[in-house]
Amino acid sequence: MSTAHLPAGVWLRAAERDLPLVTVDALLEPGAAALVLAPHPDDESLGCGGLLAACAAAGRAARVVVVSDGAGSHPRSRGFPPARLVALRQAEARAAVTALGLDATRDLHFLGLPDTAVPRQGTAFEAAVAAVLALPGPPPGAVFASWRHDPHGDHAATWALAAAVVAALPPGTRLFAYPVWGLAHAHPVPGFPLPPPPLLAAPPRGVRLDIAPRLAAKRRAISAHASQLGELIQDDAGGFRLPPEALALALRPFELFLAEPAA
Predict the structure, then answer these.
(1) Distance separating alpha carbons of residues 6 and 107, to the nearest angstrom
(2) Distance (Å, rounded) from C-alpha 186 to C-alpha 8?
(3) What is the distance between the alpha carbons of residues 159 and 178, in angstroms, rounded to a whole number?
(4) Structural domain contains residue 202
(5) What phi, psi does 36 have (nearest 5°)?
(6) Which 3 state secondary structure label does DSSP give 5?
(7) I need a surface site. Which of 19, 64, 108, 168 has the fewest CB within 10 A?
(8) What is the pTM of this model?
(9) Which domain covers residue 62, as residue numbers?
(10) Is residue 15 included in any domain, yes or no?
(11) Is the pLDDT of residue 2 over 70?
């Protein structure tokens, strides 16, 4: 193994230890808006809830685009067939962004791509890029998307979508990755299988955003996703449920935003 590369778990722990701890005013240029691309309803709160709450508190514009329809979390539920589950998860996302201080009617958008099958190329991918670029308002100063190394296809596809969006935005638009499930490489989650850890170029680049003042809002936002916490859907024994260890990682007093090449 090259000394210039580290396994993902070691690399992430170095990022958590060594990256500078900053406020939202240091992360974003003066007056710059934030755009968060979330693979599923709940990822916006898990990965960027503190960022969004900090933007709202500072009067900064922030928008959230939920990429997939969320219908894959409980595929065997009879009480919540796909259309009803999609409606539920959209309602939960609206409640979550409202808890963070955003205007759900203005600041939240849904692409409705198929959960577990978000495309990384092709006609549907290009249409998704165009839809994000067509959002009303000024271009964002920074785009935040799920980490390319998160062990979920929709998370990697959302990163590809973000990279394509940034490539079409004005030069100087920044692109950051937020790890969600990839954090399990550094902090194992019982019962959550992982692929072999990728080797990543050291040292990590990016920041830790100080969200200690926004943790209460972030906790309320995560709680709004009750379907993902095992509190609503009881008729799908194999359905998704956020493990407590993953929740604990999401509720630390900082959020990790990694600056990585788009390609």
Answers:
(1) 38
(2) 7
(3) 10
(4) no
(5) -110, 125
(6) strand
(7) 168
(8) 0.97
(9) 32-182+208-259
(10) no
(11) no
